[in-house]
Amino acid sequence: MPAKVNTCAIVGLEGAVVEVEADIASGLPAFFVVGLPDTAVQEARERVRAAIRNSGCEFPMRRITVSLAPADLKKEGPAYDLPIALAVLAASGQLPVIPEDSLFLGELALDGGLRHTTGILPMVALARQRGFRTVFVPAADAKEAALIQGPQIIPVATLSEVAAHLRGEHVIPPYVAPIASALEAAPQYDGPDISHVRGQEHAKRALEVAAAGGHNLLMTGPPGSGKTLLARALASLLPPLTPEEALDVTKIYSISGMLPQDTPLIVQRPFRSPHYTISHAGLVGGGRWPHPGEITLSHRGVLFLDELPEFGHNVLEVLRQPMEDKVVTISRAQGNVTFPANVMLVAAMNPCPCGYYGDSQRACTCAPSIVSRYQKRISGPLLDRIDMFIQVPRVEYEKLLAPPNAETSEMVRGRVTQARERERRRFGESAMTCNADMGPEEVWKFCPLNDTTRGLMQAAMRQMDLSARAFHRVLKLARTIADLAGSDDIGVPHLAEALQYRPREVTGG
């Protein structure tokens, strides 16, 4: 009689229930796995065979057929090892009927032990959604699985241990690890502190505004002026992840296989800085079976693109849609996969190839045509999606030697967190978490202008030649500056500062 065991597959960032059915028939010994398995699933036959034999059980030397349903869903990865082994043992009468309200996940070693398996968190989330009461996971992944409240998490070390549990010979106690403890024990950001940056007060203020509202930022300045240090210090200004955001980020890193085993929950906002030689698929995600790219790995955090003009044109242009929609959609012939991409884009660039165009002390060696061509590598539509443009000039000698009396990241982060709390209260129960998430409807609702500010905005639109998109971005930026000041209304100083962060001349073509 066929035996059935429930497990899970990963599609994008979501899970899908897979039924593993095993049938043992008479005939020459053979082992078939059907249901669109990839190479790793096909190789499970050898791992399962050795694991069963080395766990004190008998591998049936008959014709074995294992079906992974639904058959039209591609199966990848080694997480099907444990359910396949249990289905074979149940079909051969060595185990009782497997409970239908249980989900089994894990890769088997040849000696019957269970290895760390990627994607555990979204699989357990699916188990809760589908009403499974118990989830069996490798012992190394129990902390990660226990982040999802609801189903019982059974940590399993070996195949023989699972078999003894199912027979009732030795019951494995469930694992419990509340998410609150993981968040309370969150370490502080260990990167550069904003106080490490000498001078650049205008740039520091811009970083505070960007962090408070989640706004995109472009820094321009000569080499060595501190652009990279400022960008890395920005991560220390961001407020801590909420429990929901932490689970979202952890789910991404779990599927990508980048979640450290000793860190079941990502508690720091991601900071990703890919090199400009990155490919299109590396940035947005892709592959035969699409996996998240750097944009998705930066979800709820910072995506820093240093030397922005050096990135390929096609690579930069794919940023346009994620910056607007906050998601990345990868289309394949078999269907579409959507990954989240709610990131702060922070970019840095030199003003010209030599880096000293407009510098006060060192002359630029580039011809005007070369400078123009270099700056036009960044398209106008992409520049129009950036909220803030700041100049980062060289730091004077006196400021480099000045005593460190600047504000620390902790002090600035306190103001940023207060501003974010004001924004969350304003948005209520909506999915928006910061001012940068607002669409045109929310801009008109939460960013009203009085007669004075309306006149200033009208003059700015005419003199600065702002597009409709730039108009909305200026209002969102002014709303953030007002929130930092604790003001319910957008005043002239708030709007004037927001306009200062717009470029006087857009050089992109």
User: Strand content of the residues, in percent?
Assistant: 15-25%
CATH architecture of the largest domain: 3-Layer(aba) Sandwich
Text of the CATH class of the largest domain: Alpha Beta
> How is the quaternary structure best described?
single chain
User: How far apart are the termini?
Assistant: 69 Å
Which class of secondary structure composition applies to the elements?
alpha/beta
Label the overall shape: elongated
- Total DSSP E strands: 18
Largest sheet: 5 strands, parallel
* Low-pLDDT residue intervals, each spanning 5 or more residues: none
What is the number of helical segments per DSSP (H or I, 4+ residues)?
A: 22
| Mean pLDDT across all amino acids | 90
CATH homologous superfamily name of the largest domain?
P-loop containing nucleotide triphosphate hydrolases
User: If strands are numbered along the chain, what order do they take across the biggest sheet?
Assistant: 11-14-17-10-18
Could you outline the blueprint of secondary structure elements for this entry?
Blueprint: E1 3-11, E2 14-25, E3 30-34, H1 39-42, H2 44-54, E4 63-69, H3 81-91, E5 102-104, E6 107-108, E7 114-115, H4 120-130, E8 134-138, H5 142-145, E9 152-156, H6 159-167, H7 179-184, H8 201-213, E10 217-220, H9 227-234, H10 243-255, E11 271-272, H11 280-284, E12 285-286, E13 291-292, H12 294-297, E14 302-305, H13 313-317, H14 320-325, E15 327-332, E16 335-340, E17 344-349, H15 368-375, H16 380-384, E18 388-391, H17 397-401, H18 409-427, H19 440-446, H20 451-464, H21 468-484, H22 492-500
